[in-house]
Amino acid sequence: MRAFSCSRCGSLVGFEDPTCVSCGSTLGYVHGIDRMRALDDDGRARWEGVPRILCANQPLGCNWLVPEGPELEAFCVACRLVRRHPSPGDDLATDQYAAALVAERRLLFQVLENDLPITSYAERDGGLAFDLLSSTTGDPVTIGHADGVVTIDLSETGDAYRESLRVELGEPYRTMLGHFRHETGHYYWQELVSSSPALLARCRELFGDDTADYQQAIDRHYAHGAPDGWRAEFISEYATMHPYEDFAESWAHYLHITDTLQTAASFGMNLGGLIGDKLAPELRGSLATHPAFSVTGYREATMEEILTLWHPLAIAFNQINRSMGKNDLYPFVLTEPVRAKLAFVHEVVSGQSHSTGTSSNVGHDATTATSSDDRSSTGRANATS
């Protein structure tokens, strides 16, 4: 995530900030130019003569702007992808929904920046949609993906509930943003990988046979756990369950890594001293996050370059967390097989040059990847189509 500044006073502001703490201006994010604009007294921000107003989900915390005009879309590109959400009268679930939208907008920023194709569920069957529902106040919800529809249990916006599941399932990491990234990995496998014979063949070489029975894989995983020695070839225990999950986990970690690198580069973080010198002598005294690469979401870098930058930074962040008495920020080991899988994801991401927001001819007739991510203990999956 880049660092942003208020267009009125130039002060540093965050991606989610609704107002500038320095000058008090109401702020809005302009998708496409990736700027944070201060609204005028009439509630509009203007860019290149186009007036823009806040998304209709502004009461829920959305600070994205939409162009004002005769064909005004009341909701921003991120909020338009939500297919199902809590009813307005469900106050608890609505609060959870607002919290989940923060993670969804972060995901969409990264997806759009990488120029990945997005075809909405409103445009065609199998298009991307988010069903954001709460098992706290409604029926049980299972996090998962099915034919373009990503279902998220809003109950996991609660720290105590999500942490209890993390401990129960033995996971080192569990966040709402992680769920969004993982599940959209299934969507992009469907859209970009399964439709390309060459990519699909290479994907199967790295991740395994995706035609293996998925339900049997779930049953085996929860009955017996990960196989011995899994850390040598997989990024997580969950990745061992089925090739679908291995790809989705690798996809999520690719987004984790590049987003965190971009944030560090945006703030001009330097890694010098003992760690930087010992791990990467050629980077001595230089910015280990390489700002030039971060401008396009790291599409212009190689995966080897990305991981060379990431390794010392991850170590530094882990040590900083420990200094605060917290667990490691990134408690994962990137072995050579895992690095090869991340390199494949990077190839899929960096190879895209599609315009976003329009129908894509990639994957329209692709085999559908269906995953009910049983990491939620709340029961049955939602019916999706």
Chart the SSEs and their pairings:
Blueprint: E1 4-5, E2 12-13, E3 27-30, E4 35-38, E5 45-47, E6 50-54, E7 65-67, E8 82-84, H1 91-113, E9 129-133, E10 144-146, E11 149-153, H2 159-168, H3 176-193, H4 197-207, H5 214-224, H6 243-266, H7 273-279, H8 291-294, H9 303-323, H10 336-350, E12 370-372
Parallel strand pairs: 8-9, 9-11
Antiparallel strand pairs: 1-2, 3-4, 5-6, 6-7, 10-11, 10-12
In short:
With 385 residues, the protein is α+β, with helices and mostly antiparallel strands. The protein is built from ten helices and twelve strands. Helix 1 packs across helix 3, helix 3 crosses helix 6 and helix 6 packs across helix 10.
What labels describe this entry?
single chain, 385 residues, five-stranded mixed β-sheet, three-stranded antiparallel β-sheet, 37% helix, globular, disordered C terminus, Zinc-binding metallopeptidase, Zinc-ribbon_6_bact
- Cα distance spanning the termini: 33 Å
Tally of strands: 12
Low-confidence stretches: 283-288, 353-385
What sequence of helices (H) and strands (E) makes up the elements? EEEEEEEEHEEEHHHHHHHHHE
Which structural class should the secondary elements be placed in?
A: alpha+beta
Cα-atom radius of gyration? 21 Å
The DSSP helix count reads 10
Instruction: Identify the overall geometry.
Output: globular
How much is the average pLDDT? 84
Strand order of the largest sheet: 8-9-11-10-12
Beta-strand percentage range: 5-15%
Largest sheet properties = 5 strands, mixed
Helix content: 25-40%
